[in-house]
Write a structure and sequence with these properties.
Elements lengths: L5 H12 L16 E3 L14 H15 L3 E4 L4 E2 L8 E3 L19 H13 L3 E7 L45 H6 L56 H17 L3 E5 L6 H13 L12 E3 L5 H10 L5 E2 L2 H12 L18 E4 L2 E4 L13 E3 L5 E4 L16 H10 L5 E3 H4 L23 H12 L7 E6 L3 E6 L3 E6 L6 E6 L7 E4 L8 E3 L5 E6 L13 E6 L13 E7 L25 E8 L5 E7 L6 E7 L4 E7 L3 E5 L5 E9 L9 E7 L16 H10 L3 E4 L10 E6 L3 E8 L5 E9 L2 E6 L8 E7 L4 E7 L1
Parallel strand pairs: 1-2, 1-13, 2-5, 5-6, 6-7, 7-8
Antiparallel strand pairs: 3-4, 9-10, 11-12, 14-15, 15-16, 16-21, 17-20, 18-19, 18-21, 22-29, 23-28, 24-27, 24-29, 25-26, 25-28, 30-31, 31-34, 32-33, 32-35, 35-36
Length: about 800
């Protein structure tokens, strides 16, 4: 892949100058309701380290509610099998045996791809969370080989900046430094790729400071070689930018996601982000997301700062509207004393853009997310308080009566609203946070106000109507989505608000309140196109228990919002520097071997019955005869194609289930070559039979299950000696010993803890450790994590 020339950048900018903000009187399209499909320390003991399976089971409920897209957590391998925000290997999606395990917190690569396909089958798009500003966990399972003594000191990472990865030709045969430093997996990284380095000798400012460690440097001169690695290929200028661009295109093709959520975008250059977005949208071949692809960056700041970032990435992405969120928080925190009518003034300016005649909602209003919502819980997962020191912005308690008013505003104003999992679903007061089944409406209940608001937004088609502020009072904000709906928002605890407003509905139009708060009462638009809007208080005394909102639209509208099933296309690359041949891995990858007709496994798909699969093999040497073959779950060959050049075939399974894609040389006279395998298929709308997708034989599967039942993550990391907090998951109650070692292997602290089934939040009881890198270990669970003490 290549980035654009300066001329092409200028031309693109001039084009966008002609498609700036849409006026308030213009309807806007291409918006979505996006569910954040996880919470910060997401866990369910029925799906240990298998969140993709959990989401696959939840998908039919989300379709019924009208969810357009699900935001999935980062899915690349973390060194500590954490929640995704400490990425280790970009090209490991849960298929390689590294750090002592195979799957990620989401599960194996097969399970991740299945979840994407099942969401698609339910008409739901997938928004992939992507972390681009740092990587973490250099070294083998024990940390061996991760340190480069020649690295410049950043006073945070103790020079742990050698990143080497297993591959099909170099599996983890041992966990010592020699084995680690010889691993040749794709996109190895050296200390010069991180701040500070000779090409960017700065640690000041958001783009350069060492916040997370090691922090990626996307500058042209940030490249070089390791001083002690044996696999040590020469790097060239723009190494990190070029390789990240290539990885993102690979990632989009491999997973088949539809949009992106971009983490901490203020912490790396805007020019790099614009480059990456362009390539995912317009330079990814068949996987192009297009100019209207959903993309949102996490830029925490003022409206002007967020708008500046959006302009700098040439409107290829929007931002979470943190400015609006400040106003939404005031609705709750000020207990009804906030001037509700001022809320529209909190919105960021760049909200909707005209892209080729399509008005695209680039801004994302939100109430809570995983960074603003950090509860402390008891052993059953019930809320006991708040870990406010870890919150990026103050939380809004979902039990607060004004939550519904806050969401009514988020859904009524411009943008693609994001719904937080713990707001829509009650997992904090049921004693079943860690043990519920996602299919159970009893064990995983929804908050009816939010479910109703989603129904109204979708079936009344809010965003098809132009956005107009119709009434602004201290306790009553009235928004019209022109000729679609009028939304009243009231933050008063006990008093109804009634306001007569102008509207675009024709005189004589009869409107009813689809929230149900006003019962069966209707209102009629006057001859001068005014109408009285009656909105209930927040105390839940209105009909149906509605709190703080009303939604008025013409009578006679029923459920009409449906999303057609989406097919899924995913592509695997067979190459020696990808995949893994270790016995505990998924054993996928590897190029077609020379002088051999041995099969190589590309991957697996999960197909519906009676739905046609189209499969294609793209060779890199079109003169050689190759074979692509499909095998069912019983290992029976069900379809194949042999020949030279691009090979395409179809197969229609009679039953739903796994299909394995394999390829080989058709002749023993062939040389080795890389190849690409692509499949387009439709998954069933729910998992049929067993959820397990981890093993290739019974022994492997049992080992994988045992390996994927526990997790350990430290947050925040880096941390201070007196504030080392970590989370441990375990499927059963047990007593463990927590140990902390320094870099020499000396045991510096130990403590005993009683763990309960599910997620356990603990604090290390130490206060006087010198700054440096430590290893936190729970040997009974075979889990460890690097801890950076400042």
């Amino acid at each position: 892949m290549h980035t654009r020339t300066p001329f092409r950048r200028a031309a693109a900018l001039l084009c966008l100058l002609g498609c700036l903000l849409v006026g308030a009187n213009r309807p806007a399209q291409a918006q979505k309701i996006v569910l954040q499909g996880f919470w910060w320390d997401y866990w369910n003991s029925n799906y240990p380290n298998g969140w993709a399976n959990y989401i696959a089971q939840l998908a039919p409920r989300l379709k019924a509610m009208g969810i357009d897209a699900v935001w999935l957590p980062p899915s690349v391998k973390n060194g500590n099998q954490g929640n995704g925000y400490s990425p280790f290997d970009n090209y490991d999606l849960g298929d390689k045996y590294q750090k002592g395990f195979v799957g990620t917190r989401l599960g194996t690569k097969d399970e991740l791809l299945r979840a994407v396909a099942i969401l698609h089958a339910n008409g739901i798009e997938v928004v992939q969370d992507i972390v681009l500003n740092h990587v973490d966990g250099a070294g083998s399972q024990s940390g061996a080989g991760g340190q480069d003594p020649a690295a410049w000191e950043d006073y945070t990472t103790s020079k742990y900046k050698n990143f080497r990865y297993v591959s099909y030709t170099k599996p983890a045969a041992a966990e010592d430094a020699a084995n680690y430093l010889a691993r040749n997996g794709r996109f190895s990284k050296n200390w010069q790729n991180f701040n500070p380095n000779p090409g960017n000798n700065s640690t000041s400012g958001d783009w350069n400071a060492v916040y997370f460690g090691p922090d990626v440097s996307y500058y042209n001169g940030s490249y070089g070689q390791s001083s002690n690695a044996t696999y040590n290929p020469t790097q060239t200028a723009d190494y990190m930018r070029n390789n990240t661009r290539d990885w993102l295109v690979w990632y989009k093709k491999q997973v088949g996601f539809d949009g992106v959520r971009l983490d901490a975008v203020k912490h790396f250059p805007d020019f790099a982000m614009e480059d990456f977005l362009y390539n995912m949208q317009s330079n990814a071949g068949w996987a192009n997301g297009g100019a209207t692809m959903f993309a949102v960056g996490e830029w925490v700041g003022s409206s002007a700062q967020m708008d500046g970032w959006v302009a700098n990435v040439q409107n290829r992405a929007g931002t979470f509207d943190f400015s609006l969120r400040n106003g939404i928080y005031n609705i709750v925190s000020q207990g009804g004393n906030f001037d509700l009518g001022s809320l529209p003034g909190y919105q960021q300016g760049t909200r909707v853009v005209n892209i080729g005649g399509t008005y695209v909602h680039r801004t994302v209003p939100f109430v809570n997310n995983h960074d603003t919502f950090r509860p402390t819980t008891d052993t059953n997962g019930n809320y006991t308080g708040w870990n406010t020191g870890s919150e990026l912005a103050p939380h809004i308690d979902p039990s607060d009566g004004r939550l519904s008013a806050a969401y009514a505003a988020a859904l009524a104003l411009d943008g693609s609203p994001q719904i937080f999992f713990e707001d829509l679903f009650n997992v904090g007061t049921t004693s079943k946070r860690f043990v519920h089944q996602p299919t159970s409406t009893t064990d995983l209940p929804t908050r009816s106000d939010l479910e109703n608001l989603i129904w109204c937004h979708q079936n009344l088609h809010f965003k098809d109507g132009a956005y107009k502020v119709r009434g602004q009072a201290a306790d009553h904000l009235v928004i019209e989505r022109s000729t679609k709906a009028i939304i009243g928002i009231n933050d008063n605890w006990s008093t109804w608000q009634n306001t007569t407003v102008s509207c675009d509905f024709a005189p004589g139009t009869v409107l009813k309140d689809y929230s149900g708060a006003n019962g069966t009462a209707t209102v009629t638009v006057s001859g001068s196109q005014t109408v009285a809007i009656n909105t209930p208080p927040c105390n839940g005394t209105a009909s149906g228990g509605r709190r703080g909102y009303s939604v008025w639209a013409p009578t006679g509208i029923g459920t009409n919002y449906t999303k057609a099933a989406l097919s899924t296309t995913q592509e695997w690359e067979l190459a020696d520097d990808l995949g893994d041949s270790h016995a505990s891995s998924l054993k996928q990858g590897g190029q077609l071997p020379a002088a051999s007709t041995a099969l190589r496994t590309a991957g697996r798909i999960y197909s519906a019955a009676s739905k046609t699969i189209t499969y294609t093999l793209y060779p890199t040497d079109a003169t050689r005869s190759l074979t692509i073959a499909l095998y069912n779950s019983a290992g029976t060959l069900v379809s194949s194609k042999t020949g030279t050049g691009t090979l395409t075939g179809t197969y229609t399974p009679s039953t739903a289930g796994w299909i394995t894609l394999k390829a080989k040389n058709a002749s023993t006279t062939n040389p080795a070559q890389r190849a690409f395998v692509k499949a387009t298929y439709t998954a069933p709308t729910a998992v049929v039979g067993s959820m397990t997708a981890r093993g290739t034989n019974p022994t492997d599967e049992q080992g994988a299950k045992a390996d994927l039942t526990t997790g350990l993550s430290v947050y925040p990391n880096p941390t201070s000696a007196g504030h080392i907090e970590f989370t441990v998951q375990t499927p059963a109650e047990r007593t463990v010993t927590v140990r902390l070692y320094d870099l020499t292997g000396r045991l510096v602290h130990t403590q005993t803890e009683q763990l309960y089934a599910g997620s356990n939040e603990l604090r290390l009881k130490v206060t006087t450790l010198p700054a440096g890198v430590y290893q936190l270990s729970v040997p009974e669970l075979n889990r460890s994590s690097k801890v950076l003490v400042r």
